[in-house]
Design goal:
CATH class of the largest domain: Alpha Beta
Number of helices: 13
CATH superfamily of the largest domain: Phosphoglycerate mutase-like
Number of strands: 11
CATH topology of the largest domain: Rossmann fold
Distance between the termini: 20 Å
Oligomer: single chain
Order of helices and strands: HEHHEHEHHHHHHEHEEEEHEEHE
Largest sheet: 9 strands, mixed
Number of domains: 2
Length: about 425
C-alpha cells in the first residue's frame, strides 16, 4: 500500500491528458467510460515438450506451472499493469485516486482458461490493492463449447465455406503463395533453424526448414523464445543460451506474419471477431447514454459501470485489429500482441455540449518491462499508441456516433449471437 500512496502523490502533481474539445470554448472532454480488451499474462507454451523437442537439437526447458497457466512472474507483471491502469484512470477522473471503487464501477469478464481468470485477478490486485477479489464473470461450462465471444468457431458458428477460405488466403498470399510461406520469402527462417539446431551433426528430428510450409510452424516456436525471455529466465537458459533480445525482435515479425494468416485476414477477422465486437459496441452504447443509464441487450456489465475489463487472447486482439483495420508498432514490431497487451476503447464527453467521442488505444509493456516486471507509473508507463478508429479520418477526436456506425458496418451478422451466454462467477484459486 505504501508504494500505491507514493504513486498517488505523484499523480496529484500530474495534469490529466484530457481530450481537446471539438467545440471551441467548451473546455476539455472528460473520460466517462473505458473498455479494455486484454490478452492474458505470461504463460508457458501450449505445446508439450515431447512435441517441441522434435524441432530442436536440445530439450526445451521445464516450466513451474502446467502448460498454458499464468506463471508467478506473469502474475507480478500483469499486476504492475493493473497498478498503472489505476493511475491512468484516476488521472483522467474515471476512478477515485485512492480507496476501493464502488462494487458496480468495474465489471470483469474472462475466458474460462486459468490464465485468463488469474490474469483478471492479479490485474485487479494492482488496480485496487487491499480491496479483496472482485467477481470475475465467465461462461457456464458446457461440454465441447467454448465462450462464443473468444472462440466462436466452430463451437457456436460453423467454419466458413472452403471456397471462401481459399479465396481469402489467396488474396493475402498473392500470386506466389510459395514465396510467401517459404524460406525464400522469409529469410528469418534460416536464423530460426540455426537457433533450434546450430550443429549440422546433431539436427532436429523434424527440422523446420524441411516443412513444406515452414512459416506455419514458426510462430509458436518464436513465441516460446519470447515467453522464456519475458518470464525472467537467466539468459543462459533462454533458447539454450543462443537467443537474446535482439534475436527475438528480429524474429517477432515472422511470428506476427504467420499468426496473422489465420487470425487477421479479412475473412478470419470478420467471422471470428464480429460477435465479440458486436458486444463491445453494445457495451459502449450502453455507456454513452444520458443519465439514468438503461441496460442495453448484449452489453457486458451493468449500466453505470465505468470500467469493463475483458480477459481474452492474442487471437482476439488480432481479430479485432483486423476487423477494424487497426495498426500499431512497438519496439519496431508491427501489430504484435505480447502478454498483457490491450486494445482500449475510451468514451469521452464534452461537459457543455454533452457530445460523445471515442478514443482507441493500443497499450503494451515492452519486452524488458515484462522481463523485469518493473513498476509501471505515469513517469515510466507502458507503451501507448493512439489508433485511428473506423469512421474517422484522424485518430482523435472521433465522434462516437460515426465510429459506432462504421464499426457496425464491418460486422458479419451471420457470425453474431445477440444474446450473451449464461455466466457464473469464476472460482479463484490463487
Amino acid at each position: 500500500m505504501r508504494t500505491f500512496v507514493v504513486a498517488v502523490l505523484l499523480l496529484a502533481a500530474t495534469v490529466a491528458p484530457g481530450q481537446t474539445s471539438t467545440s471551441k470554448g467548451q473546455g476539455k472532454d472528460e473520460l466517462r467510460f473505458t473498455l479494455i480488451l486484454s490478452r492474458h499474462g505470461i504463460r508457458p507454451p501450449l505445446t508439450p515438450n515431447s512435441t517441441l523437442n522434435t524441432r530442436s537439437s536440445d530439450p526445451w526447458p521445464e516450466w513451474p506451472v502446467p502448460l498454458g497457466f499464468l506463471t508467478p512472474h506473469g502474475a507480478e507483471a500483469i499486476r504492475q499493469m493493473g497498478a498503472y491502469l489505476r493511475l491512468n484512470l484516476a488521472g483522467n477522473g474515471l476512478l477515485p485516486i485512492a480507496g476501493c471503487p464502488d462494487s458496480s464501477a468495474i465489471y470483469l469478464y474472462s475466458d474460462t482458461d486459468e490464465r485468463n481468470i488469474m490474469s483478471s485477478l492479479h490485474t485487479m490486485a494492482g488496480l485496487e490493492p487491499g480491496c479483496g477479489p472482485r467477481p470475475i464473470h465467465t461462461i457456464v461450462p458446457a461440454t465441447g463449447v467454448r465462450d462464443p465471444l473468444f472462440s466462436p468457431i466452430p463451437g457456436t458458428f460453423p467454419l466458413p465455406p472452403a471456397e471462401a477460405v481459399a479465396s481469402d488466403r489467396q488474396a493475402v498470399l498473392g500470386s506466389d503463395p510459395t514465396a510467401y510461406l517459404s524460406v525464400s520469402g522469409n529469410p528469418e527462417l534460416t536464423e530460426l533453424a540455426h537457433l533450434l539446431a546450430p550443429d549440422p551433426a546433431h539436427p532436429a528430428a523434424k527440422p523446420i526448414l524441411d516443412d513444406p510450409k515452414p512459416l506455419a510452424a514458426a510462430p509458436s516456436l518464436i513465441e516460446d523464445f519470447q515467453l522464456e525471455y519475458i518470464n525472467g529466465r537467466p539468459m543462459p537458459e533462454v533458447g539454450w543460451g543462443r537467443v537474446d533480445e535482439s534475436a527475438i525482435l528480429r524474429l517477432l515479425p515472422l511470428h506476427v506474419k504467420g499468426f496473422a494468416l489465420t487470425t487477421r485476414t479479412p475473412l478470419s477477422a470478420r467471422t471470428r471477431g464480429s460477435n465479440l465486437m458486436a458486444h463491445i459496441l453494445d457495451t459502449l452504447e450502453q455507456a454513452a447514454q444520458t443519465s439514468p443509464a438503461q441496460p442495453v441487450p448484449g452489453a457486458l456489465g451493468p449500466a453505470g459501470a465505468r470500467l469493463v475489463y475483458i480477459s481474452g487472447h492474442d487471437s482476439n486482439l488480432f481479430n479485432i485489429g483486423g476487423l477494424l483495420n487497426l495498426h500499431w508498432t512497438v519496439e519496431g514490431i508491427a501489430d504484435d500482441t505480447p502478454p498483457d497487451s490491450q486494445i482500449v476503447f475510451e468514451l469521452w464527453q464534452n461537459p457543455a455540449s454533452k457530445q460523445w467521442s471515442v478514443r482507441l488505444v493500443y497499450r503494451a509493456q515492452t519486452l524488458d518491462q515484462l522481463r523485469s516486471a518493473q513498476a509501471l507509473t505515469l513517469a515510466s508507463p507502458p507503451v501507448e499508441v493512439i489508433l485511428a478508429p473506423p469512421g474517422c479520418s484522424t485518430a482523435q477526436p472521433c465522434a462516437f456516433a460515426a465510429f459506432d456506425k462504421a464499426a457496425h458496418a464491418l460486422l458479419d451478422p451471420a457470425y453474431i449471437k445477440p444474446d450473451l451466454p449464461p455466466t457464473q462467477i469464476a472460482p479463484i484459486n490463487p
